[in-house]
Design brief:
The chain is α+β, with helices and mostly antiparallel strands. Helix content is 20%, strand content 32%. Strand 1 and strand 2 form a beta hairpin.
Length: 288
């Protein structure tokens, strides 16, 4: 969480930069959104649940006082933002207390009790209509998270439930920053299991060059818009069967165009390709 120091248009600091012995700790602190003059009461260290019970995250934050009247489009106006997102995406969002759950897919099918129980992939697939609605909702949530600069209190409001399994926003959304997009590599390589329930991942990246087509496939390469700290770009590949609607969609994207891609069967990179996925429907990808 960030705030402006000393006055509404003062220098902006992240709450995690302010330590207990910092001369700035006592403020005054104001909302960092341009034009929003809400004054916070004090700086503190808060605890957030980040997934199933047992794991928490401690993070700096600025506590509200009596004034909570943020501008309607301010990322800290939780009620207005939450209500707008619910109204716009009621078909795929469920309210759970102060959290919003992006929910789709049937629960995994469990085998009968045995000494080595397994969980099989659901036999149903996500429909074109579901992909379209989910991607629109995810894009709206991503913009709210961006506006907050990945504020932990904002991240804690949005969860994904896919085939009955709960994921945090960070377990679901990757990119567009190079180091953030790189997390998908560790996520795929650390969790891939061909018989487990599919893991939904939303990728935000840019088109590195126009799609190419052969008799076997259409290929669109993506990359992060920014390099990682080590100077490398994170690269990903999208494949589609030729002469299909999604293949024709891939051929329309231009170099450097920003895109969202949603899939639950990303594979680890191999050879000259980074993490990759075969897309089934045009609704899995959209321009940002």
């Amino acid at each position: 969480m960030k705030a402006s120091y000393a006055k509404p248009d003062g220098p902006i600091f992240d709450a995690n930069e302010i330590h207990e012995d910092s001369p700035r700790k006592e403020g005054p602190w104001y909302c960092s959104t341009t034009g929003c003059t809400v004054q916070y009461k004090y700086h503190r260290i808060a605890t957030y649940a980040v997934d199933e019970p047992g794991r928490v995250l401690r993070s700096g934050t600025f506590a509200h006082g009596e004034d909570r009247h943020h501008l309607p489009d301010c990322y800290m106006n939780e009620h207005a933002l939450r209500q707008r997102i619910i109204n716009d995406h009621a078909a795929v969002l469920v309210k759970d207390g102060d959290k919003l759950l992006l929910k789709w897919g049937r629960a995994p099918v469990k085998d009968a009790p045995s000494a080595t129980p397994t969980v099989r992939r659901p036999r149903t697939t996500t429909t074109r209509e579901a992909y379209a609605g989910i991607l629109r909702a995810a894009a709206d949530i991503a913009r709210v998270v961006d506006d907050s600069d990945n504020d932990e209190s904002v991240l804690a409001r949005y969860w994904i439930i896919h085939h009955g399994i709960r994921y945090t926003w960070r377990e679901f959304c990757y990119g567009p920053d190079g180091d953030d997009l790189h997390r998908i590599i560790d996520s795929i390589e650390g969790t891939y299991n061909p018989i487990a329930a599919p893991w939904p991942r939303l990728v935000r990246a840019i088109v590195s060059d126009p799609a190419t087509s052969t008799d076997a496939r259409v290929l669109l390469n993506l990359r992060a818009p920014t390099k990682r700290r080590n100077g490398d770009y994170v690269r990903l590949s999208l494949f589609a069967k030729p002469h299909t609607p999604v293949a024709r969609q891939l051929l329309t994207f231009r170099s450097l165009e920003q895109v969202f891609v949603l899939a639950d069967d990303w594979r680890a990179g191999s050879g000259r390709y980074g993490p990759s996925v075969w897309l089934n429907t045009p609704e899995q990808i959209s321009a940002q």
